[in-house]
Hints:
2 copies of one chain form a homodimer. Chain A has 151 residues and is α+β, with helices and mostly antiparallel strands.
Amino acid sequence: MQSPDELATRIREQGMKVTPQRLAVIEALYGDGSHPTADIVWDRVRERMPTVSLRTVYQALNDLVEMGEVQMVELGNGAARFDPNLDHHDHFVCRNCERVYDVKSTRPRLVSSFAAAIDDDSGDGSDGDAVHYTVDSAEVIFRGLCPDCGG
Amino acid sequence: MQSPDELATRIREQGMKVTPQRLAVIEALYGDGSHPTADIVWDRVRERMPTVSLRTVYQALNDLVEMGEVQMVELGNGAARFDPNLDHHDHFVCRNCERVYDVKSTRPRLVSSFAAAIDDDSGDGSDGDAVHYTVDSAEVIFRGLCPDCGG
DNA sequence: AGCTAATCAACAACGGTTGTTAGTTAGCGC
DNA sequence: GCGCTAACTAACAACCGTTGTTGATTAGCT
């Protein structure tokens, strides 16, 4: 995501207001690599701004996602996580501590291999070229043990 | 997953009972490639057994997952899906119709490339061999448009 | 200064899933 | 076929993460 300053400008350009709450959410995420949940972001923001509501944090996070400044990552274990890293990258989830680590993207390799790998469910195995899948994204989730957990 | 007959034996061996409900759930999933949700399985079972409860279907599905006969797949869009295909394989999710397709696994490639790709969050970029991640699984989710939806 | 977005509080409601209770059914080993 | 006990049912309540609602208030921006 862009820096808080740059983002403030973008927000104003969209006709939205740069409120302290929004800024606090932005600053809580900027440069962060820990993939916090909305709840954790809320905690961080409340340290500086004790009366902020969870609702407002969700609102700000969703706005950032809509603006394409933050990626929402759903890893299948409960709450969604928010990631300011917009580079194509994959994730490693520790099955013990549940922490999420960034992994350099394997996407180019994957997408290029997709056409050959797609399993034709139509049953018409003999005709390969009638089947077209458009791949917009490819995300990889590795699971295992991280270094801190004896991996 | 194994055939209903084989599974019946396994269930008995575990001291569990082969009830018509359980069998109906098994038969609803056996050989199925459509990745149904619990709700859809419930619908299928009720066609033959109108009084079965959703609770029981969940119970049977979870038992199958615990037995390792069915894979639970969480794709980040609502309900979990259940997949009797135990081969290592990936998934393609149509962003329009939400259908899920099996894709031949890219896992071997992925896991072998993981060690080189892991992004060392410790900041100690110069020392590569102190960081150990144990990768148990790697799942890939492709998203895009399927053939039926103009892909 | 004035328009209007944003926030707050407080609460309801959602969807998916699990827990609970108590009474009934039925699978399985003998 | 008996008896033990797992499983089922119905009818709920409760969970978690998230979103909607309402109405009053605050404050960003032009």
